[in-house]
Amino acid sequence: MNVIDVLNLKKTYYMGTQTVEALKDISLQIDSNEYVALMGPSGSGKSTLMNLLGCLDTPTDGKYILNGVDVSDRDDDELAEVRNKLIGFVFQTFNLLPRMTALENVALPLIYAGLSKRAREEKATV
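RESULT FIELD:
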């Protein structure tokens, strides 16, 4: 079964009177345990596609099926829940909260999963 199924994905941005088609008819399938690299020149849509695949944004058109669930037209709260349960990110830059320890930064997303402080710290140290 595919973990990711993308069919005719499009993303259009409107800036005043200008229309920018960041993605046009992107289709791809990614199987469980498959490694995929996105490569291309600056401005080719890599970051836009990653934002869509990471449920940080929604497509203008097309379908995005993640683990058998259509997430194409979810609202922000529903996308946050999907990110909390199904998606992990490794950023190029550190994106850590400087006022928190490394352990607290690792445990932070577990708050949204409803774990107690003790359970979060235990899980974060594993």
